[in-house]
Amino acid sequence: MKAIVVTDRAARTAGMKLVEQPEPQAAINDVVVQVHASGWVWDEQTWPSTWTDRRDRDRTPSIPGHELAGVVTALGYGTTGLSVGQRVFGLADWYRDGTLAEYVAMEARNLAPLPGDVDFTVGASLPISGLTAWQGLFQHGRLQAGQSVLVHGAAGAVGSMATQLARESGAYVIGTGRAAHRQTALDFGAQEFVDLQNDALEDVGGVDLVLDVFGGDIAKRSAGLIRAGGTLVTVTGPTEARPANGLAVDFVVESNRAQLSEIVRRVRDGRLRMNIGNVSTLDDAVAALNPPERPTGKPIIRVRP
Taking the model in full, what pTM does it have? Predict the structure, then answer.
């Protein structure tokens, strides 16, 4: 099968190569999925799991990519809940070969059924962004109707999903980002926008929840905006910034079949849409995943036409 592999951590995406690899086999509780489309996260090659297994042993050459939509072609021993020929989408394991390939073997529990009226490109765009937004807002942030939430990077893949979910739940949403992204953030439902290059973040005042995708100084300054009892939620790792009278939570997104099913149901209902960026083929993936600047929309690789 064709697959993208990486071998040089220092080279990052510049070290990607399209090669022929053996097709994976389904282990216990696994399925093999014929990948139709794969999502991509721009900083994936900075993650330790791209290069090592769970025991911290080198596993290069490795196949990156963790989001996919496709069709089940084989079931491992003991696998239940899915069937051969079923359309699925989901989040592949962090420490195993991923989805920038024609086939991937992964745990069945990390997949959810993909309805026939949802395109594979859309399905592949949802897992990381949708689950990160859902878990950040509701599991870790405990967002309630009537609260205010500051969504950093509101025009990006995670931020645009979080903005829509928060608005639908009855929250007041303030988005942030660069000036060029203002209209996109507003189009996805932000009620206010803060240009982090030119506006004073502190002028936002107090909020009940911050969903942070930037870390560093932005997270530190955001901690000072949290009202008593509120929460700073970040996906950038442990932060020294802690609200004076609230919580600071950092988390790594986890696959959840029920949440995936709820997210795709909202997509079908027209209540949720994904900010999809450049769509390219597997043959063109190496060039497509080396853009001159960080993408705003979710990059998608169409593995099958």
Answer: 0.95
